[in-house]
Structures are given as C-alpha cells and as structure tokens.
Input
Amino acid sequence: MNLNKPLVLMTHELPEDWVGELLEDYHVIKGINEERGLDSSLIKYLDKAEGILCLLDDPIPAEHLERAPKLKVVSNMAVGVDNIDLAACSRLGIAVGHTPGVLTEGTADLTVALLLAVCRRLPTASEDARQGRWTNWDPTGWLGVDLKNSIVGIIGLGKIGSAVGERLAAFGAQIIFTNRSPLPEKEKKLNATQVGLDELLRTSDFICLHVPLTEKTANLINEQAFRKMKSSAILINAARGSIVDTTALTRALKEGHIRAAGLDVTEPEPLPPSHPLYKLDNCLITPHIGSATFQIRQTMAKIALENLSAGIKGTHLPYCANPEIYT
Ligand code: GLV
Output
C-alpha cells in the first residue's frame, strides 16, 4: 500500500472516463461491487482511511465512522444522504458530500414519465400488444385518466418537487403542495396552493412524494394516509422507499383504496422479484433510476470527486450536507 498518498475507500467501481485522473492523487481501495456498504474487504482499512466514496445504498453507520480516526470526508454520489449517519459524522467532524442540483430536472422528468405511464396504463397496454391481445381498436380498452384539470398534490416542494410542479402545471393540472415552510415565490410561479397534509391526501388525484427521508417522513404514507386518499388516487414515489409503508401500499392497491402507484423507489431496495407488488398490474416499479442519464450520472461522479478532494485537503466541500461542522 502506498501510504504517501491519502487512502480512499471506494465502495463501487465507477467508469474510468467518469473519474478520469481525479483519483490518481489517492491510494484507492475498491470494495466488492455486489455488496453494499463497507464490506469486509474495506472495513479492515478504516483505521487508515481519509476518505470514503460511496453510493446511496451503502449504509455508513456510526460504528464504522468511529473506527476511522483519520477520516475527513464521506462523499456520497447522491443528493440524499439518509444512508449515512449524518449526526455521527458531524459529531466526529467528518464532512459529508452530496450532489444536489444536478439531478433535479432528470428526477422530475422521471417522475412525470412514471405518472404518465401509470395514468395511461402503458405497461399493460404494451404487454397486451406484445402478447397478441390487441385484436381491434377497442373503444373501452386500456382506458386511463386525464391529467388536465386534475389535482396534483406534491408532498415537499423543494427543488425536485417544484420542477415536477412546473412540468405538471404545463399539462393543465392544478398543483397543491405541502412544505415545511411557506414558499411564496414558488407558489406564485406555479400558481400552486399550500395546504395541510390531510387536505392534500383527501383531495389529490395524483400524489407525488418529494421529501427527504428523515425520522419525520419515514412511513408518512401509512395505512391511515391511504384511507384518506380518493379511491381514484395515483401515488408516485421517486423520493425514498421508506416514506411509504410497503405493506399498507400493497393492501391499498389490492383492495382498491387507491387506483394505482408508480414507484421508482421501494422499501426494501432492491425489491425482491417475489414481492407481491410486482404481481399487481396497477403498480409500476422501476429500479431507482431518477438520475439515470449519462449526463447526470457523469456529473454526479464529478461532484462526488470534487467533494472528496476538498474534504481530504481540509477545505470547505463544494456541496456539503453537514455544513455545521464548519461553524
Ligand atoms: C437519488 O435518489 C439521489 O439521492 O441521488
């Protein structure tokens, strides 16, 4: 091991042309691609590591951080940092890097794609065509619901929630939202109305989740929430799986408490192929691909490396999720 260079633990391989020369300044030890988090091949180096480069499904718990006295930075190639014990990082003075901004538009596009695919029943229609069930132009076949004049409820009008609202307003939907604080600017731009969660759940035709996963938002959409929704409601989740109670969602879809769901994120993740949600034709599931475009993923890798480099140098990260460590 060349200890003239700072040691970086990298949980997964990234394409050579995304990381370029940026990793040449470090001694990099890579983990096992198929495993999540710091696997046994990496844990043994924690005592010497100055940086960790990880992905959103790599848990980075306090017990690992506490074994890394030299660790200066955990750089997550994601905007969300719920996989990292942020409080432990702040307590130990470890900077946490993330990649906000670059995936806002892409994730909003994917949210709208999921919503349209679900409300116009594209997976069923496509499968029926493929399987020879398209026998005539059926006036009552594959009917979906309109987006125009519908009410779209956005839970969390942050960057991604606002970008979704802008897109759906252009389809003629009326936008309502909940947010931690009032947002007069965005309300004006979107012509959106801030409401309480109960009202949003009761009145929305489409409900889109765009809050981060925290203690407060875990299981926010539970059995009671589903009972409040219209039986025609469509739920779209491109935020984090654990915001929705998976068992309650499965029941709501099976028993018709809501019409359908589009999920880019699930709990657990990945959702095992045997899961009952896959058997429901009113549920469309994609494998957490909100930011999956060539351009976005490459930019995320670049920012993650910039954060890593700043952290190891001891300078302020360009995108820091726990800026309180600097005060
Ligand atoms: C995607 O879910 C991200 O947090 O980057």
Summary: The domain at 104-285 is CATH 3.40.50.720 (Rossmann fold). Residues 56, 78-80, 103, 290-291 surround glyoxylic acid (CB under 6 Å). The chain has two domains: 7-102+294-326, 104-285.
